[in-house]
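Inverse folding, one chain.
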């Protein structure tokens, strides 16, 4: 009877060791997958940041050109009004 208990304990310990290895291997695969996803996500955010910087730069140039056009137009209107006023005096 003692032999049966000892055999059962050995079998259980071996099975637990196998299970422990499987769990460790599973977590190692999960850790590797998470690291890969983090790296890919980081690369995507870097590309997105580059695109956004480019597009915001282009948008700033558009606003600068629009502002210049408005200033030139306002100056032209003011000059026309001054010319109109001075010709009527």
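Residues assigned per position:
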């Amino acid at each position: 009877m003692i032999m049966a208990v000892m055999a059962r304990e050995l079998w259980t310990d071996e099975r637990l060791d196998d299970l422990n290895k499987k769990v460790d291997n599973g977590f190692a695969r999960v850790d590797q997958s998470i690291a890969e996803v983090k790296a890919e996500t980081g690369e995507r955010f870097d590309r997105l940041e580059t695109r956004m910087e480019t597009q915001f730069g282009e948008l700033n140039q558009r606003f600068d050109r629009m502002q210049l056009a408005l200033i030139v137009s306002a100056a032209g209107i003011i000059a026309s009004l001054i010319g109109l006023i001075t010709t009527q005096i």
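The CA atoms of residues 13 and 73 lie 88 Å apart. The chain has a mean pLDDT of 89.
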